[in-house]
Automatic annotation (TrEMBL):
Molecular-function annotations in GO: hydrolase activity, acting on ester bonds; metal ion binding; nucleotide binding
UniProt-listed InterPro entries: 5'-Nucleotdase_C_sf (IPR036907), 5'-Nucleotdase_CS (IPR006146), 5_nucleotidase/apyrase (IPR006179), Metallo-depent_PP-like (IPR029052), Nucleosidase_C (IPR053828), Pesterase_C1039 (IPR014485)
All copies of domain Putative 5'-nucleotidase C-terminal, residue ranges: 374-572
Protein name: Putative 5'-nucleotidase C-terminal domain-containing protein
PROSITE patterns reported for this sequence: 5_NUCLEOTIDASE_1 (PS00785)
Biological process terms in GO annotation: nucleotide catabolic process
Domain of life per record: Eukaryota
Keyword Transcription: no
GO CC annotations, alphabetized: cytosol; extracellular region
Keywords: Signal
Signal peptide span: 1-18
């Protein structure tokens, strides 16, 4: 039975391929993208199958630039909806279950979520499209909790539409009840029990990591406390056929084992499937032989696939498979045995059209200029011509900040944090959507005047080496931990890129292979996880802080030390360490310009890229 299903899949794919090649792939003509490589092999289906998304962050129109590796992620939510529909049909044919699950972070990332007009709510409009997909479970992410209004929108609009499928096991919101008293209630539901088409009983949760950066009037309960709750014990008491735990928590180095062990203490053998997120990486681990945990990347770059052969009464190890799919139409058509003419469903096309309308409504295609080349955060060294950090601090800030400033004739050094850049800038049009994706934070710029150049130029190295000696390393570690709890994940994501670059000996290997650039995942689950094989992207260490060039003047010249207000406390502390002539405080800091950090690239692009 199993074998014949597998053979059937191979046969269908072979026919579809021959057919597709024979008639030419029209989509390559109609698509502005370079030809995409196909997945390496068909998916392995089990009797319970899961399609997983996480950390979509508003990237619902996919990645639209044509520089490497963006076309790999060029599918959109409409294409994804068509994919899900075809996969559901295949599941029916095979007579197996197929679930659709999301692990949170729907807010903050592109113009579709963040480009709303004044008075709007982040991701309120883009979420209307996610609602249209047949999700079985969606879990809350930390980005749903930074602003009360967003959490409130999820509670009052999104969760009701999902009808019990939006899960927030340990995240509450404080609202007024009918008697005008304040009450803390779960944002969505704490758990969901349901039965699949094939009659499998499933118990599911939606767990958030120990996040502390949430807004007032939202509450995040620690995972270790959650598992001690009465409701938790009640929810897991009855044995389902399988626990399917979604949650915004990385599958490694976090608290999934706390939840897992709490369930294992009651049910020693029940299959447990975990769908995690938050660190934006591809990852998989098996906590025991009857469990698998999958994490499926970020930004609509990756679609996760997990299948299990759930074998009823047997207590032996379960056969699982997992796959990380590049999010594009070639992937989708390959795995659904469709071609470019048969693939689109009207529902999917409707979603694509709707998202394009939303993009127009938000003016996201308003062009600032045309970028002459790619600028990346960590795929080029800093400083270098290809570094978006260099672009930002050496070119864009010096232009955009002094443009209207009364102090533009005073020499300066400008400092900001590298975390201010969220996404690469790619060659081609640089529009409002690109600006929001690349540099979304609305920080102000401030300055201290009359700092000796010889002092000012010591600030950057001092900021960056704040971890050099042991005592300071502790301070740094504490800061990292604090940042982690507040939701900063870039460090883990970049460590992951570093690791894949090192493992493959970076550039050397790249040159000798014909593979295109992309993610090369190495996780602890059996077999190869990536659906399409790539050579790893380059990855360079980047400093936490970056600065403009030091003007070539004598050390005693008095200059303006300009910096982003976000780093004010740290900068003052450092400034008072490297000189003792004066003790600087907030009183010495003034506003430098009205231009906020999220406008810098646009102002620069209008000037330099037209
Ligand atoms: C990834 O992008 C590159 C560059 O456009 C392309 O050559 C390659 O075929 C893409 N791979 C996939 C799987 O889409
Ligand atoms: C889009 O542009 C139009 C016309 O310039 C303007 O009226 C509208 O407010 C803009 N919308 C947004 C979201 O910026
Ligand atoms: C609820 O309380 C607010 C102030 O906290 C008040 O403005 C409002 O009128 C009250 N509503 C009712 C129905 O009592
Ligand atoms: C969350 O809401 C529930 C229901 O009102 C309440 O019983 C629980 O104490 C709340 N949890 C937290 C951590 O606030
Ligand atoms: C938090 O909730 C309390 C009670 O509902 C309310 O008085 C307060 O204004 C709220 N704070 C914010 C920032 O919404
Ligand atoms: C079952 O899985 C566990 C954990 O992955 C492994 O240690 C064990 O060797 C496996 N047992 C068999 C019989 O394969
Ligand atoms: C299918 O939809 C995509 C957009 O997602 C569009 O580019 C393509 O032209 C459509 N194909 C057909 C045959 O309508
Ligand atoms: C970087 O840009 C500078 C100034 O435009 C130019 O002189 C230099 O040749 C460029 N270097 C590279 C490697 O492109
Ligand atoms: C510069 O100042 C003028 C006049 O105050 C203002 O209209 C313009 O928007 C400013 N430009 C920038 C980039 O801030
Ligand atoms: C800079 O310009 C201001 C007025 O715009 C002037 O008062 C000041 O002397 C100038 N400073 C230098 C160093 O040229
Ligand atoms: C200027 O100051 C820097 C940093 O304090 C120092 O390294 C350099 O030697 C000084 N240059 C001169 C000419 O004194
Ligand atoms: C790369 O492609 C070229 C031409 O398509 C082929 O001759 C060569 O053998 C390939 N190299 C590898 C390592 O596959
Ligand atoms: Zn995220
Ligand atoms: Zn997150």
């Amino acid at each position: 039975m199993r074998a014949s299903t597998t053979f059937l899949t191979f046969a269908l794919v072979a026919i579809a391929d021959a057919c597709g090649d024979g008639h030419g792939h029209d989509h390559h003509e109609s698509h502005p993208y370079p030809q995409l490589t196909k997945p390496s092999r068909p998916l392995e289906w089990g009797d319970l199958n899961i399609i997983h998304t996480t950390d979509t962050h508003g990237w619902l129109l996919g990645h639209q630039h044509i520089s490497f590796p963006e076309p790999n992620y060029s599918g959109d939510l409409g294409d994804f909806a068509s994919f899900v529909k075809h996969m559901k049909d295949i599941a029916l044919e095979k007579d197996v279950d197929l679930l659709l699950i999301d692990s949170g972070d729907l807010h903050d990332g592109t113009g579709l979520s963040d480009g709303y007009a004044a008075g709007g709510i982040d991701a309120h409009d883009s979420n209307q499209f996610l609602k249209q997909l047949p999700y079985d479970i969606m879990a809350i992410g930390n980005h749903e909790l930074y602003d009360y209004i967003n959490t409130w929108d999820m509670h009052t609009n999104f969760a009701p539409a999902l009808n019990g499928k939006y899960l927030s096991s340990n995240a509450n919101i404080t609202v007024f009840d009918e008697n005008n008293n304040t009450v803390s209630v779960p944002v969505g539901s704490r758990y969901r029990k349901f039965t699949t088409r094939k009659g499998r009983r499933i118990t599911s949760l939606g767990v958030l990591f120990d996040f502390t950066g949430n807004d007032v009037n939202t509450t995040v309960q620690k995972v270790e406390d959650m598992v001690k709750e009465q409701w938790f014990a009640g929810a897991i008491e009855e044995e389902p056929d399988v626990f399917v735990l979604a949650g915004h928590m990385p599958v490694n180095y976090d608290n999934w084992p706390v939840v897992f062990n709490a369930i294992r203490a009651v049910h020693a053998d029940t299959p447990i499937i975990i769908l995690g997120g938050h660190t934006h990486i591809r990852d998989c681990v098996q906590l025991d032989g009857r469990s698998m945990s999958l994490e499926s990347g970020r930004y609509m770059e990756t679609i996760g696939w997990l299948s299990a052969r759930l074998d009823g009464l047997s207590k032996s190890n379960i056969t699982f498979s997992r796959r990380y799919l590049d999010q594009n139409r070639v992937t989708y058509e390959y795995h659904t045995q469709q071609d470019s003419l048969t693939f689109n469903t009207s529902h999917g096309s409707g979603i694509t059209q709707g998202l394009k309308k939303l993009s127009d409504k938000y003016n996201l295609s308003a062009v600032f200029g045309t970028a002459p080349q790619d600028y990346t955060i960590s795929r080029n060294p800093y400083p270098s011509n290809g570094s978006s950090l260099t672009l930002f601090v050496n070119e864009a800030m010096p232009y955009a900040l002094t443009f209207n400033s009364s102090r533009s004739n005073v020499s300066n050094i400008m400092i900001t944090n590298s975390g201010s850049q969220r996404f690469d800038v790619y060659a081609g049009t640089f529009d409002k959507n690109d600006q929001i994706a690349a540099s979304p934070f609305t920080d102000a710029f401030v300055y201290i005047k009359d700092i000796e150049l010889g002092v000012a130029q010591q600030v950057l190295p001092a900021l960056n080496s704040a971890g050099a000696d042991n005592r300071k390393r502790d301070v740094l570690e504490k800061r990292e931990q604090e940042l982690w709890r507040r939701g900063y994940v870039d460090r883990r994501y970049m460590d992951w890129l570093d690791e894949m670059d090192r493992r493959h000996d970076g550039a050397v290997k790249r040159a000798s292979q014909n593979l295109t650039l992309g993610y090369v995942t190495s996780d602890s689950c059996p077999g190869i996880g990536d659906d399409t094989l790539h050579a790893p992207l380059a990855s360079y260490d980047i400093p936490d802080f970056i600065a403009s060039d030091t003007p070539s003047l004598s050390n005693d010249t008095l200059i303006d030390l300009i910096f982003v207000d976000y780093i004010q406390d740290q900068l003052l502390e450092i400034l008072n360490q490297i000189q003792s002539e004066k003790t600087y405080s907030d009183a010495d800091v003034d506003s430098y310009t009205d231009v906020l950090s999220n406008a810098v690239l646009g102002i620069y692009a209008q000037h330099a890229w037209n």
